[in-house]
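Researcher: Going back to the complex we discussed earlier. I've cleaned up the inputs and rechecked each line, so this should be the final set. Can you rerun the prediction on the complete assembly and write out the structure?
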Amino acid sequence: MQQVKMEVEQASLVLKLLGDKTRLTIMALLNIRELCVCELLEVFDMSQPSISQHLRKLKDAGLVKEERKGQWVYYSINKTSDAYPLLESVLHYIPEQTEKMEQIIKSNPTLRCGC
Amino acid sequence: MQQVKMEVEQASLVLKLLGDKTRLTIMALLNIRELCVCELLEVFDMSQPSISQHLRKLKDAGLVKEERKGQWVYYSINKTSDAYPLLESVLHYIPEQTEKMEQIIKSNPTLRCGC
DNA sequence: TTAGGATATAACTATTTGCTTATATGTTCA
DNA sequence: TGAACATATAAGCAAATAGTTATATCCTAA
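Model: Rerun complete. Updated structure for the full complex:
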């Protein structure tokens, strides 16, 4: 049923990244849709640099990719990563972060003006 | 297809434990069969206390259970753990540790005398 | 009952980690 | 062009982590 093994070393690095509550929640949110940094900031009780640093680690490991759209930088899950099958599998075991996602939608940080 | 979600907090704790090369390898070995501490010692280049401490963390999290058999303490995967489905799923993505298991069989540390 | 082997615990240390604040960089728009 | 916003990086710090050595505990067998 399953396939495409990773080396233990590589897998443990990915699992270590996912073994942090903040990063695991970020991945669960990105599993719903891509998000920009300011959207993620809405649902974590920590500073902007802290979120940026988590995202950098995830990006360095190839788990996410970034795309600048104007003044915002959007992050999304990198489905071409060798680790993607493992990641996807892990995400099956944690609940969808619908509450946090609603919080993002409600606050809508990329639309401050209302025009 | 998948089921029985864990809370993010609980899942991240389990993933953090698996996010260590030594512990992940231990779990992969225990996935083949139960092993005593002295058998595990054969395949890791570190001290006995270090292995014991890793096993303790895994036991505290409920991922493994221990059973004393005479002078040896055997560890095995705790299949009744809430985290077992996640663990099993993760282990699908890393290669079977057959080489290390052969090393254990060859050295056979629980049979020093040969009687 | 004591010696020796197997394992666990204690105490210590160096490294890593996750956060903070301060600051730099990049983008938009008046 | 420069003010304001979004994001990244730098530097520093406290806590967590993974290893070590020394020692305690538990079991077997002579």
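Model: Worth noting: Residues 20, 22, 46-47, 49-50, 53-54, 68, 70-72 of chain A lie near DNA strand C (CB under 10 Å from a C1').
Researcher: Good, that matches what I expected from the previous run.
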